[in-house]
Amino acid sequence: MSLPVQAGIRPPGPAPVTVSKPGRSDSVWWLAAVAAAFSLAQLVFVAPHLGLSWDETVYISQVSMHAPAAFFDPPRARGVTLLVAPVTLLTSSIHVLRVYLSVLSGLGLFLALLSWRRLRPAWQLAVAGVFFASLWTTQYYGPQAMPDLWVGLSSLAAVGLFLRAAQARGRPGWWFLAGAAGCLGAAALVRPGDALYLAGALILAVALVPRWRQWPLAIAVVAGFAAGAADWVVEAYVRFGGPLRRLRLAGAEQGGFGWHFAIWGELRALDGPTLCRPCTVAYRYPAISIWWLLLPVLLVLGALAARRAGLLGSSVLASACALALAFQYLFLIYYAAPRFLIPAYALAAIGVSDVVAGLITGVRPGLRPAAITAVVVILGLQLAVQHAVLVHQVKEKRGYFGAYARIASDLHQIGVRSPCLIKGDQYIPIAYYAGCESAPSVATVRLHDPAEPVVILVRNGHPPPAYARTWHAYRLRGISSHLLRVTAWVPVLK
User: Fold this and answer.
1) What is the per-residue DSSP string for 120-155?
2) Confidence check: pLDDT of 185 > 70
3) Would you say residue 482 has pLDDT above 60?
4) pLDDT score, position 6
5) Sign of the alpha-carbon dihedral angle for 123, 210, 321, 371
6) Average pLDDT for the chain
7) By the 8 A CB rule, do 164 and 66 touch?
8) Which of 1, 27, 106, 189 would be 39's cystine partner, CB 3.0–4.6 Å?
9) Whole-angstrom Cα distance, residue 395 to residue 399?
């Protein structure tokens, strides 16, 4: 296998090595193959099996013809809603949505890797793509209407285009600047908090690295973030009384922002549950979580390998941005979820690929087949482990999310049909499936039109609210778990 070396961003020093005629190992088809495999894995193992989760129904209901919009709480941003709008405005089919997002996420991975095209050879970027796409979290959330994967892909592309703009001169540089600003804006549109940390890391890089100390780079970063976050800021003034009050409300909803050593929580949740709040579960599979503990070591080794290849600057920046994106979830919130670290994994994949490149190109030519074999075996084992976790998670959530549709069907059978209002346990996704409005507060229930059905969902064994104790009680199907066995309390059904 021929392994061409590409020019990359580096501190001042000897000029990087370039190859004028890249071989087949530098073909863009490496990236296309990884992206296609990523989409295919989602379509086969995830997309056909999952219903909609709580968070998805919040995002989707904003632009859906199927049900009224759910309350859009302060921490959320509108990027995911805009992403799914082309489908949800036309059809309520979950399968169509899953296929759309699976294909779109594969395309997003291809474009994100492509943004690093002249910073690393294509075969090495394909290794980065395999590491990232093989994680169960990326495959699991790829076809879901959730923000984390899209922040990761946008961040990876933004850093790559930032680096290419830093080394380019003339017209190409302006195109890369515009692309970096656009990708950072996309990340901010999806999740402004994450994008703020990324923008901060890039601005710090501009200030500290003489080679990158260029006003256009700083302007592109600031302008991109500002453009993407503008929607969140405007909505803060319109609905919440300003950005600061919205942040306070968001912090209160998340249990408060402050110093929380959440690293061990993220480790506990690494292979499930998908939400660990508070994270007091035991370590479920410590043996298959070793890769996570080794990741910081791999990033250091990747930087050393990149230094030998003349690519130290880009490797360190990718790892620094990964750390910036992970910081708030490791140190500032008290609970954990595996998906929170997807953006960090996207950028850490560059460092991992630098380790692989150093292992293969740093040995004598006669030992390269053995090195390549070792890399393939290790990646294969990691892929097998991640796939086993993915299958378990999909099986677990398939029944849980499926209960929403069954409960909605039971409500239809007892006469609850749109227009209607639902409040109580798991009320937002059940209201979406039933085509009802979801009540964000008790006041909403009391002010609701008495001629329309109102439903209060209460877990079996628990009493209804005082105002609903004289209403009719209907036991509904759920799943074997007690978590979704509920009783519907309904005042009047016509």
Assistant:
1) S-HHHHHHHHHHHHHSHHHHHHTTSS-SHHHHHHHH
2) yes
3) no
4) 41
5) positive
6) 89
7) no
8) 106
9) 7
